[in-house]
Amino acid sequence: MAKTHDALLSLITGINKWQGNYGKIPDELYKGMLLFIEQTAASKAQPPVDLYHLLQILHRPSKEWGIPDLQDHYPEDAPLLEEFIGLTPDADEFLNRYVSPQDAEQQTMYEILKYCREEDRQLQQEYTRIRTFLSNPKNAVVTSFQLSQFADTFLDIQLTNLIKQCYEEITPAVANFRKCPHCGWTLEYKNDRWRCNKEDICHLLADFERMSSFDFGRERVLRLVPGIQRFVLLPGISELRIAERLIHKGYQVELYPNVDEYDLLVSGDGKSIFLDVKDFRDPRTLANFFNHQSHAYLEKYKNKCLIVVPNYRSQLFASYRERSMNLLNETARACIEMIMEKEIESTLKKVFL
């Protein structure tokens, strides 16, 4: 099992580095290929004969690779590579779960979290303000002045710098982009269609017939880096929508309580419960996330937190919640209660009886 995990991690890390510089093949990619060959030796699958053969194989669904028990780490129907995109969204999710925070795609968010959590600080309000700002579609693409206006309100220069690192400049290319009608980020024309980042989940959620260009005049323009768009903005839109709806229903809601130990704390009539929004592309990936956690980590969910899956995930996978719950191991199943976003209000009525 450890070797399967290491093979995937080496391949994804290696390809990620290679995409940044095709002139040099990274050591991780060679290591990943050797581990891949070793893992396929036990099956009847034909192992790759060279790197280019390996890349061809990685364009196929993972169940065709011939690696035993791979589904415990990676979705069976997902390839690792996709034409015109490179590493798939599933590969990004794997990397995001298993690499050190410093190497993850949204590393700056981890740095902000770590900084705000340090014992001598406990910057709850600051963290909530930053996370809320990054979760708002209006702030997905901003001018340099708008970003500075927000970032400079923090007296702590370290936080100011980290907020600015969540963005990248796109001024020379801005005329080639369109504004995503769902998340406000940049649509790019690839393979005969407009796409919003790799997964392009926004296509399900908004009318792509109504697209507008960005009009910032001569100002410098910045957008959220792709990892922040995928792992902070998209789930954040769901989190803020849920919070707004519950406040409207008369509940008290705190965002990112205990400096992001959970996503929401919902209170009413002297009772309270935590909600954690988990936005994974594949129900197996969500189950694997919990299956690989320690018992101590899972205990924080037992009887005090509901796992909430955004509604749009069931548009891609029918019976998403049921599939994911069925794939949990015994330890995880004893601690996890999972609901779809549309079930929140009916579930809370039972909790607050």
Form type: globular
**What does the largest sheet look like?**
5 strands, mixed
- Number of strand segments: 13
Low-confidence stretches: 100-104
Helix and strand element order: HHHEEHHHEHHEEEEHEHEHEEHHEHHHEH
Q: What radius of gyration results from the CA coordinates?
A: 21 Å
Could you say which structural class the secondary elements and strand pairing correspond to?
Answer: alpha+beta
| Helix share, percent | 40-55%
Sequence of strands across the biggest β-sheet: 9-10-11-12-13
What's the tally of helices?
17
Distance between the termini: 44 Å
Mean pLDDT, rounded to whole units? Answer: 90
- How would you classify the quaternary structure? single chain
Share of residues in strands: 5-15%
Describe the structure concisely for a colleague.
The chain is of the alpha+beta class and 353 residues long.
Can you describe what's shown?
With 353 residues, this protein is of the alpha+beta class. About 1% of the residues have low confidence. The longest helix is centred in the C-terminal third of the chain and has 23 residues. The chain is 45% helix and 14% strand. The termini are far apart. It contains 17 helices and 13 strands. The strands form four sheets. The protein has a five-stranded mixed beta sheet, sandwiched between helices. A three-stranded antiparallel beta sheet has the order 3-8-4. It has a three-stranded antiparallel beta sheet with strand order 5-6-7, with no helix packed on it. A hairpin with a 2-residue loop joins strand 6 and strand 7. 34% of the residues are buried.
